[in-house]
Amino acid sequence: MPNVPAAASALDVLEYLSRHAEPVPAASIARDLPLPRSSVYHLLKVLCSRGYVTHYVEDRRFGLGSAAYELGSAYQRQAPLARVARGPVRRLVDQSGRNAHFATLDGRDVIYLLEERAPSQPTLVTDVGVRLPAHLTASGVAMLAALPGPQVRALYPDRDSFTQRHGTGPRSLTELRSLLSRTRTDGFAREDGTVTPELSSVAVAVLDRAERPLAAVAVTFRSVDGQPEHVADLVGRAKAAAGDIARRLSPTPR
Amino acid sequence: MPNVPAAASALDVLEYLSRHAEPVPAASIARDLPLPRSSVYHLLKVLCSRGYVTHYVEDRRFGLGSAAYELGSAYQRQAPLARVARGPVRRLVDQSGRNAHFATLDGRDVIYLLEERAPSQPTLVTDVGVRLPAHLTASGVAMLAALPGPQVRALYPDRDSFTQRHGTGPRSLTELRSLLSRTRTDGFAREDGTVTPELSSVAVAVLDRAERPLAAVAVTFRSVDGQPEHVADLVGRAKAAAGDIARRLSPTPR
DNA sequence: CACAATTGTCTCGGATCCGAGACGATCCAC
DNA sequence: GTGGATCGTCTCGGATCCGAGACAATTGTG
């Protein structure tokens, strides 16, 4: 592949700054990337002039600038998650003959970004835009299982955090942790009747390159159809869809 | 200044994509920037491999990637607003002899990021991290005045949106709009006793390059000291501080 | 179905850039 | 106060890159 080294170096500098909680001196950037000192200053000049980097003159340090934030906001406005997920989720529905949906985590809620219906399958409550408590849904549990423990604790500081639905679901952090541990062991999350009585879902998380959960893919079926080999088949297909989505969102660097 | 054209072009491509609500074909990028076709493909290759751009193969289009979002998140983690504002706000306090603070808008709240105390001035409630309803504070009103009308309406959909404090402040969207209009005319926002009885504040917004409010700077004084010429002096100093902060956050492109 | 348009990849040589190193200014340690 | 270390800018020549244009594959149109 053709190399565009100056562009790649500019990204290196931005990513270096983004890995640091505080602004850093130019000498550290040059040393750690490593890049020639004069090249680093040239790059910083351009990045500063475009607002991607802020020069803290008094501290003689450099940090990310507001243009970096603007890029992040623009990314969110393009709704890329649902856009990228549409094809794989459609194929999952076609292949499995079941309803599927795609959701992301927002605090203690899951928010549904996409739902694809299979013929003759029951209507779901998981319409686009709907929010449900994460710990009560397969998608939510799949994503929570991929979060670091301290972050889960921060989300669920006390027993009041655990809303109920149909009298089911974890009621404490201990119960939730146990559920998340089992989810990690199984490689997927499952709920039976917690969201909708007589319906079950299996879900897997879509992870970014840092193994953080971006979203989750779930397949829903009637609970009476929940034979182990059937469930295993659906989990496998959901995993394939999740992997496909992950690859499109965060390509492996070459 | 030394030019690093490939780095600048890479930023051009990212900004072009961020200006579009939908992914775009490579031909549009080449035509509109304008850049040579082969150069655009080279840049897209690098940006895709690093996750800044996503190639929507089926649509033959390109959109921003999750790495753009990660940069934006990293920017927020560095808390650059308070970092950049500290010096100018400290100088404002030194020059005016009054307390000053710096806040940003979060939904219908202002959240205080920085407070600098002057000797022998009264303690304020606006400690770092404190949230107050925006429409009741000078800083909040200054930032709301810089928002487009539809965005203000979205923030305040009904009368229940208008919390009260000490029985003062706007009670309806009509009253709020009137206040914001006066604020735009005056060039600053003022509150007298709404946050703390017997204390007044004047505030001005810190605007980014798109004239959107990033934050606000406010000076607080005893209401009995509120003679017009004194207030005008404080407003002028607050404006200078706001301008200084804005220049550091979003340098004018060359 | 045939042709035109577009997309994406690839080559290679002239033009341009990158980076070593010099320099002046500023900061820091003793 | 002095000398060393660091920062930020600048020059310029050899090495590298950029981009015109060819090509094959795919898509769109009549």
From TrEMBL, chains A, B:
UniProt xrefs under InterPro entries: GAF-like_dom_sf, HTH_MetabolicPath_Reg, Tscrpt_reg_IclR_C, Tscrpt_reg_IclR_N, WH-like_DNA-bd_sf, WH_DNA-bd_sf
SMART domains: HTH_ICLR
Entry protein name: IclR family transcriptional regulator
Keywords: DNA-binding, Transcription, Transcription regulation
Organism, as annotated: Intrasporangium calvum
Pfam families (alphabetical): HTH_IclR, IclR_C
Superkingdom, natural source: Bacteria
Boundaries of every IclR-ED domain copy: 67-251
Listed PANTHER family: HELIX-TURN-HELIX TRANSCRIPTIONAL REGULATOR, ICLR FAMILY, HTH-TYPE TRANSCRIPTIONAL REGULATOR RV1719
HTH iclR-type domain residues: 4-66
